[in-house]
Amino acid sequence: MRKPKKLSLESLAPCLVEVSNPPVPWDYQALFGNNHPMELEIGFGKGRFLVHATQQYPERNFLGIEIDRKYHLLTATRLVKRGITNARLCCGDARTILENLIPPASLSAIHIFFPDPWWKQRHHKRRLFQGPFVSALERCLAPGGWVNVATDVESYFHELTQLFLLHAPNLSPHPWAEGAPPVDAEGHLTNYEKKSLEQSREVFRVRYGQVGKT
Description:
Blueprint: H1 9-12, H2 28-32, E1 38-42, H3 48-56, E2 61-66, H4 69-81, E3 87-91, H5 94-100, E4 107-113, H6 131-140, E5 141-151, H7 154-167, E6 171-174, H8 191-198, E7 204-210
Parallel strand pairs: 1-2, 1-4, 2-3, 4-5
Antiparallel strand pairs: 5-7, 6-7
Helix pairs in contact: 6-7
């Protein structure tokens, strides 16, 4: 089978955003040309969720952050080839971007699916979920917004549960039920989730919303 033709960076440019130096918080109106609700996916990988969600909800805008340049360009190519205009992608460290580029209380949803667990103890400091990161999630979330998390690592799931308890006191866990992020036609959020379920690994999911929200 012939590989799909790569698109030039010029062709991908409409859906790519860069980190300015010095960093200046993003103006969503300038990025998208509208003031639709804004959602963020951190670590979008091959873009399975973004491609599906952007098409299912054209009335929403989506930002994607991915640290791997290869996946960043791959997903941009998938979006452009489908003519999807309600997504923008940034290649960089999500922790730095949340701290410097995302305006406070501006995101209606934040999606974090299957973050790297960094298995070795000496590498745990590289994990995405740390106290300051969780505090930043709470700060960037708009009133009534949700943080949606999924992982297939039970110990990591319990660790992030404690981090939310300590560092995001205004957010509480809710079941993964009606209103949760959309899955694709095969019932998956991401390529990684598809692989996990095929290998019979349990997936742990939780949604964090404002305390008292039902």
